[in-house]
Write a structure and sequence with these properties.
329 residues, alpha+beta, 3 domains, three-stranded antiparallel beta sheet, elongated
Amino acid sequence: MDKVKIPVLALRQAAQVEVRTAEEALEALRKLWREDEGVKKLLEQAARRGYTLVQTRDVEPAFTAAIRVAIARLRERLGEEKPSTLVVRGGKGKEERKPMFWESPEGVRYRVEPYDLTPREEKYWSYRDKRVEDAAKWVEQFLAMAEYEEAPSLLEDALEHEDNPHFRRDLIPEDLEAELRLLGWDGTLRNLQALVDTLPAREKAFVERVRSITALVDREKGQVVAVKSPIGWEVRQGLSREAMKAVMAVGLLQELVKEPSWKVHEVRRHVEAVAEADAHLKGLLAELEAIATLRQAKHHLDQVGRGRAIAVYRDPATGEPVYRTPVIG
């Protein structure tokens, strides 16, 4: 008996759905089986006589795999010899399903529906399971009854339990924690807030030091190479490239820090150039890095210090809260 050739591309085009997984492809094939007699006949013949897959080149591997699974399952169903336990009585063109029950080892009797059985009669595959529909409706109603309330922020919650090692929460990223330790932080959230509170004073001191620079001294020769005057910077003859670069950098740096909202990344390269030429100004870079760390810590504390909304779900029957979850977004 010749094997049946299954045109995979034709089946894929007939499915007309997006397929990302084998499960989705299998569901698409199941729908085709119910709605298309030609597909149903083709797959039955493949299950009985064997098959080969053709036109697979431009089809997702998941869909091809789903065809193999579907045919294997169909072959098992067609090969069953045990009669169906579903009893159907016909009368005046109507079908009636006889109630069936299954008793568990514990002695509990459960009603058995057609969709609980291994289907041999394909017409029962499409039966609607009212239990699933009722459960879905209950879940929808349950979710629609959500109430919202304000909850403590992550920071407030962490501060409350900071002294209890069983409930302590680590809110600070490891890389930021390492930088804060270099500034003298002891690892507690209470002292972190106090350390962050020093940020305005550090920024003010940094700006004042930058604006007070009136001369640049060569790091090697110890000679003054540039002096600030009312009309600009006066430089000595024969300046090195590094010294000239520093003179330009300090002028730009002093202009940048005039803005209250100056950015660390904008001034860093100018501070590096100045500190490279004048050893007396190396401390500027350390001060700037401390400011950068504290600004990052302040931003992080602001984020975890925001209030949170909590969704509360209640039992429809009793009204008692049964589930709480943070609201995302």
